Amino acid sequence: MKVQIYHNPNCGTSRNTLAMLEASGKTPEVIEYLVTPPSRERLEALLAMMQITPRALLRRKGTPYDELDLDNAALNDEQLIDAMMAHPILINRPIVVVGDKASLCRPSESVLALLGQPIESFTKEDGEVVRREGDA
Question: Pick the catalytic residue: 5, 11, 57, 105?
Fold first, then answer.
């Protein structure tokens, strides 16, 4: 099954998610979305697959979110997508696609729910150990 990760190598959550995928035996297509942003059509498809709104995908920290007044409730979905297209750093990450399912993997261990045979445990960069749900 095809696996993709919309990845920012400067993000610890994204690095941990990628490492969990690889430790689970997956070889994902790594898309550095700041270098190669998704098209508008792909971004809209990802939102539909994740079943979230554009507002739920917006990243605030380290972005022009405040300068662009994106907290303004009067902005509609199209305007928020326009902002993400103009400033890909506004797209929260990592987004993982497995087959026809996608998830914003924050926290990183949420990627395990997308995998058919995830790893049982994983130690993150900061030393935190995460375990597959149901494992003691």
Answer: 11
